[in-house]
C-alpha cells in the first residue's frame, strides 16, 4: 500500500524513526503520456504530464507539507506547535489540512480577494485561522516572516527547508516512473520553491546513481508577474494565474541557480497564452488544471513554436494544481450551457440527432 512520500523515500529525507509521520498519502501522482497534445502541437517531443493536482489537497504542496508538519512535531516546543504561512492559496489549503490531521493550529495569511474560491474554502473547512491582508502575497509574506522571528511559530512557506525536502520527491518519482531522467522539465515559477526542490531532487538522484544525467530546467512566470525574467522586483504583480501572482520570490537565487546549472531558461507567458493552454489541455488530454499550472503548457508551446527542442527528446510538464481549485476561471472562459425545456424533440435537435 502506498503510504505517502515520507515512507516511500524515507532514507533520502531528514526524518528519524521518532518523527511522527503526518501524511494524507500524498505523492504517487500520475505521469501521463500526452500524445494528443504532441499531435496537436505537431511535435515529435515525447510529452509527459506530471499531474500534481491528484494530490490529496489538489496541489504539489502536499509533498512538502507532509515533511514540514511532521518535522514541526519532531522539534520540542513549549506548547503544541502552531504553523503559519502566507499564501496565494494552495500552501494555505495544504497547511491547514495537514495541521488538522496533526491536531495542531494553523494560521494563514492570504491577499484579500486574490485567491481562488476552492483554496479559500479548503483553508476554512480545515479550521485554519484565515486572515485576509489588504495587500498582495509579498506583503503577507513579509508579515509572516516578521511574526515568526518574534513569536514561537513554525513557518511552512517554502523557505522552510523541510518543504523543499518533501517537494524534491516529485523529481525522484518522475525518474522512477519513467525509468530514466527526462531530457527537459517544464514548470511554473512563483515563489520559486518548487523549481528549487525539483532541481535538488534531480541532483540527488544523480548523486546516488539512480539516473545517468540531469534534465534541462525550463521555468515559466506569468508576464505581469515575472521578476526573475525581468531581473527586478515587480511591485504590483498582475495575472489571472493567482497562484503565481508574486513580485518578489523568496527562492529567487535558487531558481537562477537551477536555470544556470541545468543550462535551462526562465521565461514568461501572457495570460492569453495561459488561458489557451488551459483549455487546450482540458480538451485534448482530459486533464483539468488551474491557470498557474497551464503556464507549463503555454511555455512548452512557446518553445515548440521557436523550434527550441532537438528531435526526439522527452519533456515532463509539472501540472501543479487541480482545475477545480479555481472554478470561477473555468466558468468565465467557457460558453455557458444552453437552457432548453425538457422536450425530447428540442433536445435531440440541439445535439444534432435530428
Ligand atoms: N503552481 C501552483 C498551482 C501554485 O500554487 C504555486 C505556488 C506555483 C505553481 C509556484 O510554485 O511558488 O514554488 O514557485 N503557490 C504558492 C502558494 C505561492 O502560496 O500556494 P513556487
Q: What's the short version?
A:
With 354 residues, the chain is of the alpha/beta class. It has 15 helices and 10 strands.
Describe the structure.
The protein has 354 residues and is α/β, with parallel strands linked by helices. The protein has helices at residues 5-8, 35-40, 61-74, 90-102, 117-125, 137-150, 161-167, 169-178, 193-207, 227-230, 252-262, 271-285, 291-305, 327-333, 344-351; strands spanning 31-33, 46-51, 82-86, 105-111, 129-133, 154-155, 184-188, 216-222, 265-269, 314-319. Helix 5 (117-125) links the parallel strand 4 (105-111) and strand 5 (129-133). Helix 3 crosses helix 7 and helix 8 (169-178) packs across helix 9 (193-207). The longest helix has 15 residues, at 193-207. The chain is globular and about 70 Å long. The model has no long low-confidence stretch (mean pLDDT 97). It binds ligand F0G.
Helix content: 40-55%
Structural class of the secondary structure composition?
alpha/beta
Intertermini distance = 51 Å
- The unreliable regions are none
Mind describing the biggest β-sheet? 6 strands, mixed
The topology string of helices and strands comes to HEHEHEHEHEHEHHEHEHHEHHEHH
- Rg from Cα: 20 Å
Please report the number of helical segments.
15
Amino acid at each position: 500500500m502506498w503510504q505517502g512520500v515520507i515512507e516511500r523515500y524515507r532514507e533520502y529525507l531528514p526524518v528519524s524513526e521518532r518523527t511522527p509521520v503526518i501524511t494524507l498519502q500524498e505523492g504517487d501522482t500520475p505521469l501521463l503520456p500526452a500524445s494528443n497534445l504532441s499531435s496537436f502541437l505537431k511535435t515529435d517531443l515525447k510529452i509527459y504530464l506530471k499531474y500534481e493536482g491528484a494530490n490529496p489537497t489538489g496541489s504539489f504542496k502536499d509533498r512538502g507539507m507532509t515533511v514540514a508538519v511532521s518535522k514541526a512535531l519532531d522539534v520540542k516546543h513549549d506548547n503544541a506547535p502552531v504553523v503559519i504561512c502566507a499564501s496565494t492559496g494552495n500552501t494555505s489549503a495544504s497547511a491547514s489540512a495537514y495541521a488538522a490531521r496533526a491536531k495542531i493550529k494553523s494560521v494563514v495569511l492570504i491577499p484579500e480577494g486574490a485567491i481562488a474560491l476552492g483554496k479559500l474554502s479548503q483553508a476554512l473547512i480545515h479550521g485554519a485561522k484565515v486572515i485576509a491582508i489588504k495587500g498582495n502575497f509579498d506583503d503577507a509574506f513579509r508579515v509572516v516572516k516578521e511574526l515568526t522571528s518574534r513569536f514561537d511559530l513554525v513557518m511552512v512557506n517554502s523557505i522552510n527547508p523541510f518543504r523543499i525536502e518533501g517537494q524534491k520527491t516529485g523529481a525522484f518519482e518522475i525518474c522512477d516512473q519513467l525509468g530514466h531522467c527526462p531530457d527537459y522539465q517544464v514548470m511554473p515559477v512563483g515563489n520559486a520553491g518548487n523549481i528549487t526542490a525539483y532541481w535538488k531532487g534531480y541532483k540527488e538522484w544523480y548523486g546516488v546513481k539512480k539516473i545517468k544525467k540531469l534534465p534541462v530546467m525550463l521555468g515559466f512566470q506569468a508576464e505581469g508577474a515575472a521578476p526573475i525574467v525581468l531581473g527586478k522586483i515587480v511591485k504590483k504583480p498582475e495575472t489571472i494565474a493567482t497562484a503565481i501572482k508574486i513580485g518578489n520570490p523568496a527562492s529567487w537565487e535558487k531558481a537562477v541557480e537551477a536555470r544556470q546549472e541545468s543550462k535551462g531558461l526562465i521565461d514568461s507567458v501572457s495570460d492569453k497564452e495561459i488561458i489557451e493552454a488551459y483549455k487546450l489541455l482540458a480538451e485534448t488530454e482530459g486533464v483539468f488544471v488551474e491557470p498557474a499550472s497551464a503556464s507549463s503548457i503555454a511555455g512548452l508551446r512557446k518553445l515548440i513554436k521557436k523550434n527550441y527542442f532537438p528531435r526526439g527528446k522527452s519533456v515532463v510538464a509539472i501540472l501543479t494544481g487541480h482545475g477545480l481549485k479555481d472554478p470561477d476561471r473555468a466558468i468565465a472562459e467557457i460558453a455557458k450551457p444552453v437552457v432548453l425545456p425538457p422536450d425530447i424533440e428540442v433536445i435531440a435537435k440541439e445535439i444534432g440527432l435530428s
